[in-house]
Design brief:
Layout: H1 12-15, E1 22-30, E2 33-46, E3 49-54, E4 57-63, E5 68-71, E6 77-84, E7 89-97
Antiparallel strand pairs: 1-2, 1-7, 2-3, 3-4, 5-6, 6-7
Length: 102
């Protein structure tokens, strides 16, 4: 029974916690390898979409209904999975928070 659980999406009240977080850098997981996709940016909740901006460029946009995220065990970042509407594919991104006071 426990092996076939339905994948849960992140609730809106939990997504709101990520809004406004500053990002030091972010990586995308591709075939178990990390690729740096940018530095210095933030996470924003715009209506029904979650957007990640890095170096003043939009690198990820996902509808809230397709967004799944969880805080890293260290507490210094967030693990994000979702369908990127700009690239038209599922992406796995790990964003590390800036050490500046938030």
């Amino acid at each position: 029974m426990g092996l076939l659980k339905k994948e849960k999406k992140t609730k809106l009240k939990d997504i709101v916690e990520f809004h406004g977080k500053r990002i030091s850098y972010a990586v995308e997981m591709i075939n178990a390898e990390e690729k740096i996709i940018g530095r210095n940016g933030g996470i924003s909740l715009n209506g029904n979409e979650v957007v990640i901006l890095l170096e003043a460029k939009e690198v990820f946009r996902c509808k809230v209904s397709d967004f799944k995220a969880g805080t890293l065990m260290s507490g210094n970042g967030v693990d994000i999975n979702g369908f990127d509407v700009n690239e038209g594919r599922q992406r796995h991104i790990i964003a590390y928070y800036s050490k500046l006071r938030q």
